[in-house]
Write a structure and sequence with these properties.
Helix content is about 35%, strand content about 20%. The chain is built from 11 helices and 14 strands. It starts with 5 loop residues before the first strand and ends with a helix. The longest helix has 19 residues.
Length: about 350
């Protein structure tokens, strides 16, 4: 039985150099291969055109490149593009290109399924099957950058870890991917154009700060009342808001970077004056900005978008408290690409 080949992208630059030295070649070949993999996003060894046929054959013999493939692409009437991405083991994740007049944003996934149980999110209905590897996260970004250049004639400008999965539950792989995305020998994007969204894992928020990762942080909050949060995000019983507040203070002390609070307002869940008061108190702990998000339905009668008057009340009272607030209109709803809708609805058709 033929042994499985190692994915060459699991090797560091130095390991590639060592491989070529051991093979009797010059170490700089490793530099060339590394550039092909992480700057040029090559899918196969044959495409490494500045290597000899002998070198390419050697790489083909020893390694593989487990590159992602777009299994299905959907385009929204508003220009949003959703990709159903097939991984090397046949599993599916989704990523989204979100265009505006001035920028294009990649919404990428970090897990197949999700580790958490937010009741309002379609992804949470999928069991977590595995974490994504750094190269699989990188590939999503590289692919969307190519789509941005093709369809919108400009490079990708922003990245948000707001797709499938809880990124802080795949910490090391997410940070390894960020390193490849931001490094000058990778895609060279600024870390300040990357936002990691978490549902709130206090220990990992503190670690993110201590590790001096220069990306932005967003918290998927949705209510600042612990009893309500436990109803809509049951895992919150293990991560109380008081612990999250302490972690955010830790984050700000280390980074001096304000936190974005993501907040969906639902009818009969968090649309009362006491909910607004609780959010204002929470938002004043450290410098924050609040994104009020339009709810995107997932066929669950428990959740209904709040009245516009409630959104206005939230907005006016947050502003009166000198808290920056924006109302974010969802995009890609007609192709289930909006926030909270990524659920691999095409998986059964593809894999069944």
């Amino acid at each position: 039985m033929e042994a499985l080949k190692q994915d060459i992208r699991a090797l560091s630059k130095q390991e590639l150099r060592d491989f070529f030295t051991a093979a009797g070649d010059r170490a700089f070949r490793g530099d060339q291969v590394y550039q092909w993999l992480w700057q040029k996003g090559v899918h196969n060894f044959e495409g490494m055109s500045n290597l000899s046929k002998h070198t390419r054959a050697l790489l083909e013999e020893k390694f593989c490149i487990n590159h992602i493939a777009i299994d299905q692409q959907q385009r929204s009437t508003d220009g949003t593009i959703k990709n159903a991405i097939r991984l090397h083991d046949g599993k599916i994740v989704e990523s989204v290109l979100i265009p505006t007049k001035t920028r294009t944003t990649a919404c990428v996934s970090s897990q197949v399924g999700c580790s958490l149980d937010c009741t309002f999110c379609a992804t949470a209905r999928l069991k977590r099957m595995r974490n994504l590897n750094p190269d699989e996260i990188f590939d999503q970004v590289y692919t969307i950058d190519q789509q941005s250049r093709l369809y919108y004639q400009r490079p990708l400008s922003n990245i948000v870890f707001m797709g499938m999965g809880e990124p802080l539950m795949n910490y090391s792989n997410v940070l390894a991917a960020v390193d490849k995305i931001t490094h000058k020998e990778g895609l060279g994007m600024s870390p300040k154009r990357i936002t990691l969204s978490t549902s709130g894992i206090p220990k990992m928020i503190k670690k993110l700060a201590a590790d001096e990762v220069k990306i932005n942080l967003a918290l998927s909050l949705h209510t600042a009342r612990q009893e309500v949060r436990e109803q809509i995000m049951p895992f919150a019983k293990s991560f109380p808001l008081q612990d999250i507040q302490e972690a955010l203070q830790h984050w700000y002390d280390y980074t001096r970077s304000r936190v974005t609070l993501e907040y969906i307002v639902w009818k009969n869940i968090n649309d009362q004056q006491k909910d607004i008061n609780a959010l204002i108190d929470f938002a004043q702990i450290v410098p924050t900005k609040v994104n009020l998000i339009q709810y995107n339905a997932i066929d669950d009668d428990r959740f209904e978008q709040a009245d516009k008057s409630v959104i206005k009340a939230y907005t006016s009272q947050l502003e009166a408290a000198h808290i920056t607030v924006t109302v974010r209109q969802s995009r890609g709803q007609d192709i289930d690409a909006a926030c909270g809708q990524l659920a691999n609805k095409n998986t059964a058709k593809i894999e069944g």
